[in-house]
Design the sequence.
């Protein structure tokens, strides 16, 4: 249809019919090529490649999840060990503070007893001087 001005209705109808016939022939040829054993083999090969790719991706994902789980377990173990060490340190500090308090209390009690004994001795000496003086 290079020059639509000089064509009749019959020419246009036959050109449309020829175009439709050519289109149907190309579609039939494409269908024949798609149904051929070579095309089926290519499709199977592509499907195998896709399946292998999906399997590799799933394997990588599983490995990554396993690595994350291992890291989480290691972190949890480290945190538990750190918490246990901190608890032991706090317990040791508490025991040391309790021991220091007990020692200080005992020392203060001993000092108080010494002061009391010295006071009692002065009192007794004073009493003794008074009795001598009578």
Sequence:
């Amino acid at each position: 249809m290079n020059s639509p001005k000089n064509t009749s209705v019959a020419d246009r109808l036959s050109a449309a019919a020829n175009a439709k016939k050519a289109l149907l022939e190309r579609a039939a040829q494409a269908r024949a090529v798609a149904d051929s054993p070579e095309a089926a083999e290519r499709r199977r090969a592509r499907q195998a490649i896709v399946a292998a790719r999906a399997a590799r991706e799933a394997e990588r994902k599983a490995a990554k999840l396993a690595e994350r789980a291992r890291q989480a377990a290691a972190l949890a173990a480290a945190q538990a060990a750190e918490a246990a060490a901190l608890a032991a340190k706090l317990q040791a500090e508490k025991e040391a503070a309790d021991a220091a308090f007990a020692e200080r209390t005992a020392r203060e009690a001993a000092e108080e007893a010494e002061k009391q004994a010295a006071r009692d001795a002065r009192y007794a000496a004073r009493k003794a001087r008074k009795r001598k003086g009578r």
In short: Residues 47 and 87 are 59 Å apart (CA to CA). Helices lie at 9-34, 37-133. The radius of gyration is 53 Å.
